[in-house]
């Protein structure tokens, strides 16, 4: 929605430009080019600053993620190495000797096995 005042101002500027001498037209073109260049530079610098900030944010988040991954890797290596070291070699105290072997007297025989009369049923359970 163009403002009617702006429309009339544009028309006045165009007519003044058409009726002005060539030297003034050249100066006006030069000024217009300079202002356009300045505005473009401002836009470019503003966009560059935004892009720089975004890149820095992305790099910081990537750095944090890599730090977390590195820490998790260290923890994994420690857990693997500690698990391997624990089960690798048994000391002389952990090795069972001849006294730990069951003798024929320690094993259950036929007389130690429960018969069907000794097995509890649901009736034997107290409520």
UniProtKB/TrEMBL annotation:
Record protein name field: Gas vesicle protein GvpQ
Natural source organism: Gracilibacillus xinjiangensis
């Amino acid at each position: 929605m163009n403002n009617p005042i702006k429309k009339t101002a544009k028309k006045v500027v165009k007519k003044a430009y058409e009726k002005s001498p060539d030297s003034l037209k050249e100066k006006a073109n030069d000024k217009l080019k300079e202002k356009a260049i300045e505005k473009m530079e401002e836009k470019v610098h503003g966009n560059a600053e935004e892009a720089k900030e975004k890149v820095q944010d992305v790099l910081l988040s990537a750095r944090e993620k890599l730090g977390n991954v590195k820490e998790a890797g260290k923890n994994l290596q420690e857990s693997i190495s500690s698990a391997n070291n624990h089960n690798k070699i048994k000391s002389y105290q952990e090795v069972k000797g001849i006294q730990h072997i069951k003798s024929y007297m320690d094993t259950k025989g036929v007389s130690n096995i429960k018969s069907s009369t000794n097995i509890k049923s649901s009736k034997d359970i107290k409520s």
